Amino acid sequence: MGLAMLSLEDKINTFIQNNIDELPAWVVKFFSWPYIAGDSPEKTIHKAEKLLRDGKHSTIDVLGEFSRSLQNVAEYVNLYNSTFNLIAQMNVRPTASFKPSCFTPVRTVQESRHEKVIIERTDLELCENNIRAQVRRAKDLGIMVTIDMEDHHWTDFTLNTYFKLREEGFDNVGSVLQARLFRTAEDVRRFGAGDRVRLCIGIYNEPPSIAVEPNNKKEMKERLINYLPTLFENDVYVEIATHDTNLIDRIFQEVIFPMGIPPERFETQFLLGVQLNRFQKALISGDYFKRFRSSGFDNSLVEEYIEKGVKVRIYLPFAQSWDDALPYCRRRIKANPNIARYGIKNFLRRPEVMPRIIYEMLKERK
């Protein structure tokens, strides 16, 4: 690829990232197709089955934030019930993830055209009860679930609900920690044996008083690495969620091999649409770990990784309407440094989506 094309790509990427909150929905949709598994539980399950044939596990998420009414909440509950029924029919079952804000009506105020700030969650007791019911039903069906983390307005409620469910005996539920939040330095110590935690950097817009600035990628990554030893020392099952292959290299070099952590103690997680297939396959097959032979680490542990590989799980979000998907899509696009290339390449692989995008564009202009 010539320098002129690379320069054009950089300009397109910068423009989209700087203006994503103001771009019309159809533009967001064009660049978002790679990140969305489908518009129904059935299509998403089909995608999960396809991934499994490649040795990749998955976690399924019904996209939806800030329920607007009790009817909207009931729709999400029913959609998760339908999704759980389909997952239960699979021999190797995906996990499921859900956001608390879809389980209670949320009153919001609009800060800009697209960003929302919570000013009132109308019924946290209802939210907790709905989450408990979903976790209970998932447990009855043999499904593992994760309570997703949203922005800082939800952190206390989400963690407190998780620990309450664990105390009630639910062993099929996991939680999430975001490395860029300053409070995570204390929250990480709350988890112990039997807990399951997805550790990620975090992508929500947060005040600088409570989180690392979004342009300080280096500090965010250092924090993620620094929190891992505490989780492993406390016998927590860790889901390492990052697409930074250099960061993954460091995690194995600085934490996992020095601490003697076996492969069954953690897994790696990636978003759908991020093109790291070769790297993921090397993790699964164990080929990735051949580089650590004669590196000074415990050779028997290195050979165990070469023989077994590690578990790779792909995040599969779906939405029945674009209104439900747009907040997630805007965050993903804003965080992706290669938006233009991925968008065009994935469009060429999926030309069948163009008629729908044109329809959405025309509908939006009416």
Compose a concise summary of this entry.
Helix content is 49%, strand content 14%. By secondary structure, it is of the alpha/beta class.
Can you put this structure into words, describing what you see?
The protein has 366 residues and is of the alpha/beta class. It has 2 domains: 1-36 and 338-366, no CATH class; 37-272 and 310-318, TIM Barrel (Alpha-Beta Barrel). The protein contains 14 helices and 10 strands. The protein has helices spanning 3-19, 25-32, 41-53, 70-87, 124-140, 155-167, 184-187, 217-233, 245-259, 277-285, 299-308, 322-335, 339-349, 354-365, and strands at 57-62, 95-98, 106-110, 116-121, 145-147, 173-178, 196-200, 237-241, 266-271, 312-318. An 8-stranded parallel barrel has the order 1-2-5-6-7-8-9-10, surrounded by 6 helices. Strands 3-4 form a two-stranded antiparallel sheet. A hairpin with a 5-residue loop joins β3 (106-110) and β4 (116-121). α2 (25-32) runs antiparallel to α14 (354-365) and α4 (70-87) runs parallel beside α5. The protein is globular and about 60 Å long. The chain starts with a helix and ends with a helix. The mean pLDDT is 87.
- CATH topology annotation of the largest domain: TIM Barrel
Tell me, what's the shape? globular
Helix and strand content put the structural class at: alpha/beta
Number of strands: 10
Proportion of residues in helical segments: 40-55%
Tally of DSSP helical segments: 14
Helix-strand sequence: HHHEHEEEHEHEHEHEHEHHEHHH
Subunit arrangement of the protein = single chain
Radius of gyration from the alpha-carbon trace, in angstroms? 20 Å
Approximate strand percentage: 5-15%
Please state the average pLDDT score: 87
Summed up, the domain count is: 2
The CATH class of the largest domain is: Alpha Beta
CATH architecture label of the largest domain:
Alpha-Beta Barrel
In what order do the strands lie side by side in the largest sheet? 1-2-5-6-7-8-9-10
Low-confidence stretches: none
Tell me the major beta sheet.
8 strands, parallel, barrel
Q: How far is the N terminus from the C terminus? A: 39 Å
